[in-house]
Amino acid sequence: MKKISNWFLIPMLLLLATAAEARLTIEITQGIEGAMPIAVVPFGTPGAEGAPPGVAAIVAADLARSGRFAPLAAEKLPAQPHDGKGIDFAAWRAAGVENMVVGQVQGSGDKLLVQFQLFDVLRGVQLTGYSIPTTAERLRRVAHQISDIVYEKLTGQRGAFNTHVAYVTVEQTGAQERQFRLAVADADGFGEQVILSSKQPLMSPAWSADGRRLAYVSFEEGRSVVYVQEVVSGKREAVASFKGLNSAPGWAPDGRRLALTLSRDGNPEIYILDLQSRALTRVTHSHAIDTEPAFAPDGKSMVFTSDRGGRPQIYRVALDNYRPQGRPKRLTFEGDYNARASFSADGSQLVMVNGENNRFRIAVMELSRGTVRVLTDSRFDESPSFAPNGSMIIFATERNSRGVLEAVSVDGRAHQRLGTSQGDVREPAWSPFISQ
Description:
Elements: E1 2-3, H1 6-9, E2 25-30, E3 36-40, H2 55-65, E4 69-71, H3 89-94, E5 99-108, E6 111-120, E7 125-134, H4 139-155, E8 164-172, E9 178-186, E10 193-198, E11 202-207, E12 213-218, E13 225-230, E14 236-240, E15 246-251, E16 257-262, E17 269-274, E18 280-282, E19 290-295, E20 301-306, E21 313-320, E22 323-330, E23 337-343, E24 349-356, E25 359-366, E26 371-374, E27 382-386, E28 392-399, E29 402-409, E30 415-419, E31 424-430
Parallel strand pairs: 1-7, 3-4, 3-5
Antiparallel strand pairs: 2-30, 5-6, 6-7, 8-9, 8-31, 9-10, 11-12, 12-13, 13-14, 15-16, 16-17, 17-18, 19-20, 20-21, 21-22, 23-24, 24-25, 25-26, 27-28, 28-29, 29-30
Helix pairs in contact: 2-4
């Protein structure tokens, strides 16, 4: 069994203060028919005094949320082995299980050891197994790490359970007052951390490529200002406070530049800001409104929204060393509205808001073919963001006159909903994989 050392498991976000009680709740509203049957057996706790239970439950919930797995219900488990020696593979095959996870948590307090094994039930062989030192406080993080390992082993695609989501919540606090909060939570909605609270609007959070900083727009000064804030320390600075509009920040892959929409010269245009020198490079020159820039993962191009053709559509411009090359090219032609585009991590797809007949839904474009697939069936979807492995898309929508977040798989077959007990939640941004 392999061993994972502590440093590999602790992303920087764990250095924050103790997490507040989870505010986001997740409901799986549609799964995938024919999802892979799997059993995640409750982990044993021999000698683990005071060890929080539920590692297996977290792993099972992660895998179920992906839409690609159908964990066997706890009451249907034919047995509860904690290691490979106790597995009767014939009994598990009879229960319709193809793969299974077993494990145990040993130790106490700040010295826990989590061991798990993944088995191919049909062949009766172990596929992988790890021994992970951790603490009670970090046990949930370890569970997500296990989910990532299992997901990758069985699908060939890197798991994204051990990642985070930034979002904005809005609560009515008085007849004329609202409270805006910029928050970060685990991808399953737990461990919310409020990054900033304000009585003025907060919007457009965007993650740096290393997952350590957020750029966002704040109206704390009575007008739009773009800030960059370190997630762990809370240190922040205003990076764009020009006359007029300062909005829609998007990080360059190198982490040293931001794309922005500025109206400093009179018309909303796309600029690239060097965060160190504060030098600006103007990307677009148009009488139309150009906004919502997003870099390609290789930094060699950028997409943005423009109404230069009469209606908002997505355009792409080539870049050379972060300088525009040639005229922007229109990418979208299906629907009378396409906006808020961003790339998948491999650069092969764009996610966007597609509008037609006053319905605004989430769609994905395959860039190699130019084809567009609409994934949702709502009326007011907005702010889509890819998971870092490209498997899911999180977005904001409206249900029962309240703002909620939803997630959909890239094939449109799996859906889940993330809501709060009070107020609205909007403007989601899925983090990249956290660098270790």
